[in-house]
């Protein structure tokens, strides 16, 4: 009996996923921790002309030029401020390195499959295509962002499509 | 360790051998072949055969075997070389290359092609030397035939003088097992008449009366056993009319066979030196270059910090910093030079191209290459090959006239095509020079009109010549195999521009055309001029900067709408303000307070308005597209001394960007700008 329990637990563990939780304004979002390369402060960003407003520019990440995207602007948040708490999550997406600006990083959460609910149809700002679900954690709700899909989407204008 | 681990080594070696082979074949003088070159070609084939045998690449082994035999006849002067024979050899070399590629990608080579080339070689052998090249796919019946009974009589006991024109050779097989021995004896029987055989497995001697030479026999038997297992010696010829035999038999006893024609100064000794290079993966080199780039940036950061320190009195710190700077620069230069490879790498393939193309076109062309040792970044040398091949073909086809026409024009029958490379400042100039008919201005213009291009007779020669790069443009009267379809020249231009270079054309009717490709030496480092606009720093490629000046009010003229031109000496240049094109906030808008940098890109000159010139520096070029995308008006980025990123401006792109921005604005602002014109601070041209 005990043994079966253990086995079930291990199997469940295998399906558990870890997420990095970050905040945009009052809302809590999360990305798969395996996509995250590092977290650093927001500084020294060189503006890129004629780019969408949510692309803040490029920065030097140890010799590599990395674009910086402000998700707060992309998600039309009211308050966009750059302060000591403002951080950049550097993610690895399809062999590319992209930095995303967020209001703060809070913690790393482990979610079991049954804690991940399918995302309902959203409004126009954030298409549910870019979400891998909603994480429910007691009284908190985490918006799980599918960072691959989001950052490589046409509307982010980060990746040049071959057809262009 | 698995044998497959050695595959790559073999492939690379074979590739080099094939390259050598091609070079020697092309250098070969068919009238008076250089024995050393023929030997080198033979050795290359032989080495590939050996490797192919070891790794079980049957098709490759069999092809090289036939080829080797033929080459062997050639190097012993039994096969009189002709141009078409050399062509066949070159074709064989290509076929070997294809086979090699097939094995490399883990597939079997094209069987049909293999059989075709075997037939070609066999036929060549039959026609030219009246001899069958054995060793193709072995005849099915051969193996089954029982070996002749080992003859009891010992060779020395066989005093029969050689009848006919052959001579006797004693072939000793060392440590060969029975099965192979049978095969070998059969092979030998095909080469001549077996007069006797005896011995055991350790040493088995076969006496053979044959016209084939010792080398021949060895070459044949290498197919089955190792060369060390064979010893061939001429049998003491008894009562033989030796002089006569030599006179009409091409094969001579071993000793005589080695005689080489009187030493003639070898025309080229290229690549003769022992190679002392090592093979390194390009990404390893790139990694070092990146790291050194980082080091340079850190060094300049330190430098900046030290210079900002108040009251530095410690001389050793300052000295140390200077030393560090010098060492870092030297290191960077040394590392960059690793990536540089001589243009010979590119030029060496052109003798072949010229030979084949001129053959097809029925023209006589002499190719001259100059400046082969000029070095260029590896990534650029690889990318220049295709455009250059196209230009060379074009010159051969359209530029140089057929021999008849040349004679009629009082020129030598043989056309001359010069490929040259040289450094000029931070650029390399690669020129394709022909002494052909030159470009025909009238025909180009007529053709342009036919194609619906907007041209006028008043266009300068330069502009007319550039028409040949227009898409779909060909003045060739007929479409040939080689060129004339009008595809390509526009691609050539685009490719070269993609490498940060441009193409110039100079042409004189009746005397020839020079097409000059101007390329930056390397894509990794750029001599830049840093400029400031608003609070932002940008880098201009120094090669594009002609001069800079502060515009005076009386030299600025407003033109239709919101365009402004600047008069510099006798020229009116369009003005592009960086802050407008790139939306830089807080930039100086009063034109006379800005600085006009006169730049040139793709033959177009204009004035770029910036706030300040900061200085000149070498910058490490970083690709923006690695993690982001192409940005209009920007060619790349770099990292400044303080660790921040600065964008490198694309001179041509910036002009385009500024125009398209103005165009986008025009409909909306048309009325407004007319009003604004009246109180425009600038003087309007009258």
Task: Describe it.
- Chain B: Its EC number is 2.7.13.3.
- Chain B: GO terms for molecular function: ATP binding; phosphorelay sensor kinase activity.
- Chain B: Residues 525-660 form the CheW-like domain.
- The complex is a heterodimer of chains A (164) and B (686).
- Chain A is built from three helices and eleven strands; from the N terminus they run H-E-E-E-E-E-H-E-E-E-E-E-E-H.
- With 164 residues, chain A is mainly β.
- Chain A has a single domain (16-156), classed as CheA-289, Domain 4 (OB fold (Dihydrolipoamide Acetyltransferase, E2P)).
- Chain A has a six-stranded mixed sheet with strand order 8-1-2-11-10-9. A five-stranded mixed sheet of chain A has the order 3-6-7-5-4.
- In chain A, strand 4 (55-61) and strand 5 (64-70) form a beta hairpin.
- The longest helix of chain A is centred in the N-terminal third of the chain and has 14 residues, at 2-15.
- The radius of gyration of chain A is 17 Å and the shape is globular.
- The model of chain A is unreliable at 1-5 (pLDDT under 50).
- By secondary structure, chain B is an alpha+beta fold.
- Chain B folds into five domains: 3-137, Up-down Bundle (Four Helix Bundle (Hemerythrin (Met), subunit A)); 141-257, Alpha-Beta Plaits (2-Layer Sandwich); 282-341, Orthogonal Bundle (Helix Hairpins), CATH 1.10.287; 343-520, Histidine kinase-like ATPase, C-terminal domain (Heat Shock Protein 90), CATH 3.30.565; 525-678, CheA-289, Domain 4 (OB fold (Dihydrolipoamide Acetyltransferase, E2P)), CATH 2.40.50.180.
- Chain B has 21 helices and 22 strands.
- Chain B has a six-stranded mixed sheet. In chain B, strands 6-8-9-11-10 form a five-stranded mixed sheet. Chain B has a five-stranded mixed sheet with strand order 20-12-13-22-21.
- The longest helix of chain B has 28 residues, at 651-678.
- Chain B is elongated.
- The termini of chain B are far apart.
- The model of chain B is unreliable at 135-165, 237-273 and 669-686 (pLDDT under 50).
- The interface between A and B is medium-sized, with 24 and 31 residues.
